[in-house]
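Shipment paperwork, digital attachment
Item: protein structure file
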Amino acid sequence: MWRRACVQMGRAVLCFVVGLLALPGVAVAGDVDVGVEWINKFPDNPSCDRLYNRDNCAKGLYNYFKFKGWKGRFCNGNDNAWEEHWKEASSGGTDGSYCDRCDIAMIATHGNSGGFSFNSRHDDQWLSRTEARWGDDDDLEWIILDACSCLASATHANWQTAFARLHTILGFDTNAHDKRTRGFWFAYKAFRKKSVVQSWWYACEVTEGSGTDAAAMGVYRPNDTYSDRIHGKGSVARDSSSPTSFWYYSHNCD
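Attachment content:
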């Protein structure tokens, strides 16, 4: 089952690849791009337990999109996955050369309602939601936070400042499990013309169970992004540089 909430801007509403660092390419008009990062090992971040499948989850999505002709912009893991790749330039980040150069991006790691974790200290080991402003530099429409409770229902509205032409954030309302195939199943459904949100529900249903609630949040006005499909597989809402309201769904993975 799902539940929905719309939140207005300005209202006080609380309604996770081993190898060398893959440097980003130069964005070219007409490209459709994918980028992923993951962290399995946290030897320098004692607050985080070891994970085992975040690499497989992220690479499953990345490889499927590349197989279907999308440009792979970056695919980094463990110490090569840097917090600054997801952080706004005004906060000291380099998202304009990484996640914002993609149409779809995934980070697979540990997280909670305030953000998500890294092992590397570039620039630090925690991306706070207040440091994110996605889509303002270039392409980014859809971002997947494969990490526990980043989109917790009680605090999801705090992510609204991350939307700068971004369409949708996909994640979890509750804790989630360390599953290897979630990224693959999302891509599988997205290329079969299911909406981005419905593809996420399917991927989470296949890999989770009734004890887990997936979540999605996106722009409601001025351009409703709920029915977006990936490029080439259906309609995509127009970008909203200054969204005024948002939709939110929590979906039980039974």
